[in-house]
């Protein structure tokens, strides 16, 4: 993991996520790219510029100037925060961009060869509306091929913390599990995978499925715990608390429309966990 993209609006929630991202970059010897986006859409052609009303352009110019001044002030505060936490040696680049939220992020992912996106969460069952509002949910649903790390306000990074992945024991999870086991999970501890079922009968069937599924990870220290709970969210929450999990990875599936109507989107609901960072991977549902 060479490059991390941290998204911020300089809120209090984002400041904690910045420290988390900074520590993560330090632990993996990564570059940290800090991105602040303003919702100012610049005209791209002469025709578009001609259509912009002068008053609208004045408003945009004023807004951009205010945002830029705030950006410079807040960037200095983040540098001081890095200094106070002995992290000034971590390579950091600041980026101030105008445009549509998702378009700007996609551009940075490509241009900077980003490996991970980090953002703050409020811990109130959804990504902080003050921070990114519906944009963050769209980011999770966007299908980006890189993971998104959602960091709640009380989360503290630890290089030796426990790591767990919620799994369904299906084949299209295996590439992601191998990636996590080899690159992200602490080497001295096994990568914990947790599979939630709602009945004893399903638990017995899952034990057989588990044995076959684990053959995909020969040479890697991967274990699977089968947990019985009638509610997936509650089961995962209890598992995280009982096993002192610092990062819970969720494999977010792009469900077809009809399935969406009848399925709980657990990766969004689980963001309420107040001290556990969530690493969200996108995978095509099959």
Automatic annotation (TrEMBL):
| Stated family | Belongs to the universal stress protein A family.
- Name the source organism: Chryseobacterium gleum ATCC 35910
Entry protein name: Universal stress family protein
InterPro entries per record: Universal_stress_UspA (IPR006015), UspA (IPR006016)
In terms of CDD domains, this protein maps to: USP-like
Query: Where does the UspA domain start and stop, copy by copy?
Result: 1-142
